[in-house]
Amino acid sequence: MNTLYRVLSQNKESISLELSDKSHPIFKAHFPKSPLLPGFVMIDMIAEVLGDDIVSIKYSKFIKSIFPCDRLMCKIQKDDKTRMIKIFRDEAKVSEIMYDAR
Predict the structure, then answer these.
(1) For 66, what's the count of Cα atoms within 13 Å in the CB-facing half-sphere?
(2) Is residue 2's pLDDT more than 80?
(3) What is the pLDDT of residues 45-79, one digit of tens each?
(4) Any idea where the domains of the chain sit in the sequence?
(5) Triad 56, 46, 97: Cα angle to 5°
(6) Average pLDDT of span 67-93
(7) What CATH architecture applies to the domain 5-101?
(8) Rounded Cα–Cα distance for residues 1 and 92 (Å)
(9) What pLDDT does 32 receive?
(10) Does pTM top 0.70 for this prediction?
(11) Is residue 33 left, alpha or beta, with left meaning phi > 0 and alpha meaning psi from -120 to 50?
(12) Distance from C-alpha of 102 to C-alpha of 100, rounded to nearest angstrom
């Protein structure tokens, strides 16, 4: 999955990502004529960047579609186990995810 996105910046409170173009296999599969990022892949990307093993997904809300070449800002709140991530594109919220991690 590491060719799907590039981390532009990261600290303990946020991650800035840039997605690959529509030639990536994820976008070709979902959907070839109107490519967008599947929600479960967004969750996997965040967990991968944070180095988390997801135990359970407590909440996920996908508000707007995420497209190839999008730049995303992920704002992170975390405690020992729980992660709450709010994802923005151009300062507009596109999704929220909450999960428990090991």
Answers:
(1) 31
(2) no
(3) 999 999 999 999 999 999 999 999 999 999 999 99
(4) 5-101
(5) 55
(6) 97
(7) Roll (3.10)
(8) 25
(9) 80
(10) yes
(11) alpha
(12) 7
3-state secondary structure of 61: strand
3-class secondary structure per residue, 11-59 = CCCEEEEEECCCCCHHHHHCCCCCCCCCHHHHHHHHHHHHCCCEEEEEE
- The structure tokens 């709140």 sit at 77
Nearest of 46, 60, 68, 51 to residue 95 by alpha carbon: 60
Predicted confidence at residue 14, as pLDDT, reads: 98
Structure tokens at 31: 């959907």
Structure tokens at 92: 């507009």
Q: Looking up tokens 């151009």, which residue turns up?
A: 90
Cα(48)–Cα(43) distance, integer angstroms: 9
Phi/psi for 49 (5° steps) reads -65, -40
Give residue 97's pLDDT: 98
Note the Cα 60 to chain centre separation in Å: 11
